């Protein structure tokens, strides 16, 4: 089911066959996975940054 949902979403957003994705069960998990994904991307693209900052909103 996850593969089908990701494929359908990619098609709606004009994605190609290289688009990847996954589903999460809630907002907290989605936020944590987004931060982890960007952290991993940042480590790969900018290895010279040793202590990255995260900016967050608090109300």
Automatic annotation (TrEMBL):
InterPro entries listed in its UniProt record: PyrdxlP-dep_Trfase, PyrdxlP-dep_Trfase_major
- Highest rank taxon of the organism: Eukaryota
What protein am I looking at?
Uncharacterized protein
Q: Which organism is it from?
A: Dreissena polymorpha
Write the lineage as a comma-separated list.
Eukaryota, Metazoa, Spiralia, Lophotrochozoa, Mollusca
